[in-house]
Design goal:
By secondary structure, the chain is mainly α. The chain has a single domain, classed as Sodium/glucose cotransporter (Up-down Bundle), CATH 1.20.1730. The protein is built from 22 helices and no strands. Helix 9 (118-151) packs across helix 10 and helix 18 (422-442) packs antiparallel against helix 19 (448-469). This is Na+:solute symporter. It catalyses: L-proline(in) + Na(+)(in) = L-proline(out) + Na(+)(out).
């Protein structure tokens, strides 16, 4: 990397510092820290929702899929997300927002104690937090792989540097810092993405991408190729519908932070449109990489090799700044929502006096929790040293266990399932995770479609079957669900129950 590239990277970090400082002035309570009190405009919420799905994993693991198998990566990943978010715009987005607006909920899991019971809330909180710490560790590994490829920075140094930088602005700025970093990431990604697209077009000719398919290895133009199957795409469609509409807790926060349920739906539709269109701009150069940097033995290195081959000084630095912003924004997003779960759902049960902390003390506690959580994820990333960790974690662990964790959380919001109670919720969670363990570790030769899809299907069947055979809905839980049908302004409700009413039932 040239001096100009490092200047661009340094400039990015100065912008991050400025974002953190500006955001700090807007954070005075835990409500500001976790949900921005519903003051984030719908368009910013939608862009943040979209960008929170990106990290350096895309330019390592997914670039490898594009290099080895071709355009199937679009049908397998962003297309399923876009369709899922589109469905969720009408099912889930507004309901998440109304939890905050009508019930003062600050964590996506905070309503579960009242909707089901406290044990249900706790098992989902602990299992989801454990999953997220491993997921974030995979993202630290991904950015460190890119840093080593661009600048030969050792893996441990890359993880520590990026982690400390993320903590520095996240702990002071909360959700405001997170969404503004997402916006900056969107701008950087747009400039860098179009720069790479133009560079590839100049290399392969103005008719790119229309004539490249015949020159690529056989099957690289097929929607179904390599290890990707039709069943895997179907499984991912169902998983991503749950994951990107709130099963991935930080994305529920984006809906909660919008001004109203109606605005949250608009933000979801914006995110849906971006998912269906924008990733094609990013993936087409990755798909074309075998024509420009052929013969790579490790597909994970293809995007780095492509950048070094085509981009001039300055743009490589911008690309690297984009990688930083992808990972830092997603980790900041995950850290904020996990901190919300620990602060609002786990800690008060373990140490009841946490409930009696002043607003200022709660905010300090949230910031300390953020530092500890990010530090733990960094330690896991350094310990694994990245050996086959990224793709295995993102696909086979996160995607496969997301269904069992998210089904009681997500379906519990919908009025059709309001009589389903805690027995169905806990059994579906446990059964799904058990099936994942058996398929993943006990059965040889399990396909990715089975690893991803069967846990979700098991959880869904158990939740619906037990729930309808053994309804346990209470008047309080049913009223909670039905209250999410309208915005406060639509039903004349001005009531804002306190946290204890929601979390303790």
């Amino acid at each position: 990397m040239s001096a100009l590239d490092w200047i661009v990277v340094a400039g990015y970090f100065l912008v991050v510092v400025a974002i953190g400082w500006w955001s700090k002035q807007r954070v005075h309570t835990v409500a500001d820290f976790f949900t921005a009190r519903g003051r984030i405009p719908w368009w910013l919420s939608g862009i943040s929702h979209h960008m929170s799905g990106y990290s350096a994993v895309m330019f390592v693991a997914f670039a490898a899929v594009a290099y080895n198998d071709g355009i199937t990566v679009y049908f397998w990943w962003p297309l399923t997300i876009g369709l899922g978010v589109g469905v969720g715009a009408f099912l889930f987005a507004a309901r998440w927002n109304r939890l905050r607006a009508k019930h003062d909920v600050k964590s996506p899991l905070e309503y579960l104690a009242r909707r089901y019971n406290l044990p249900t809330q706790q098992v989902l909180a602990y299992s989801g937090a454990a999953l997220k710490v491993v997921d974030i560790a995979a993202k630290w590994v991904a950015i460190s792989v890119l840093l080593k490829g661009f600048a030969d920075i050792p893996l441990e140094v890359g993880i520590i540097f990026t982690g400390i930088a993320t903590m520095a602005y996240m702990t002071v700025g909360g959700l405001w810092a997170d969404v503004l970093t997402d916006m900056g990431q969107f701008v950087i990604q747009a400039v860098a993405g179009f720069a790479m697209l133009v560079a590839v077009m100049m290399e392969l000719g103005a008719d790119f991408p229309f004539t490249m398919w015949g020159d690529l290895p056989e099957g690289h133009g097929d929607p179904i190729a390599g290890s990707v199957t039709t069943w895997l795409i179907i499984a991912f469609l169902f998983v991503k519908t749950f994951e990107y509409n709130g099963g991935m807790w930080n994305l529920a926060q984006r809906y909660m932070a919008a001004p109203s349920g109606t605005e949250a739906r608009r933000s979801a539709l914006l995110s849906c449109g971006l998912w269906l269109v924008w990733p094609l701009i990013l993936f087409l150069p990755m798909v074309a990489a075998p024509l420009i940097v052929p013969g790579l033995t490790a597909g994970e290195e293809s995007y780095v090799a492509l950048s070094k081959e085509l981009l001039p000084a300055g743009l490589i630095g911008l690309m690297l700044a984009g990688f930083f912003s992808h990972t830092m924004a997603m980790v900041a997003s995950d850290s904020n929502v996990i901190t919300a779960v620990i602060t609002r759902d786990i800690a008060p049960v373990l140490v009841p006096k946490v409930r009696r902390l002043t607003e200022r003390a709660q905010l300090t506690f949230a910031r300390i929790t953020t530092v500890l959580f990010v530090s733990l994820s960094m330690a896991i990333a350094i310990t694994t040293r990245g050996e086959g960790f990224v793709l295995d974690t993102v696909v086979q662990l996160v995607a496969a266990t997301m269904g069992p964790i998210s089904i009681p959380l997500m379906l519990g919001l919908l009025p059709w399932f309001r009589r389903i109670g805690p027995t169905a919720a806990i059994v579906s969670w446990a059964g799904g995770l058990l099936v994942w363990y058996v398929v993943r570790y006990q059965i040889d030769g399990s396909t990715e479609a089975a690893i991803v899809g069967l846990p979700l299907l098991t959880s869904l069947v158990l939740y619906l079957g037990i729930g309808f055979l053994k309804p346990e809905g209470t008047t309080e839980s049913e009223e909670l669900v039905m209250s999410l049908n309208t915005d406060p302004d639509d039903d004349g409700s001005e009531e804002r129950p306190g946290r204890s009413e929601v979390a303790t039932g």
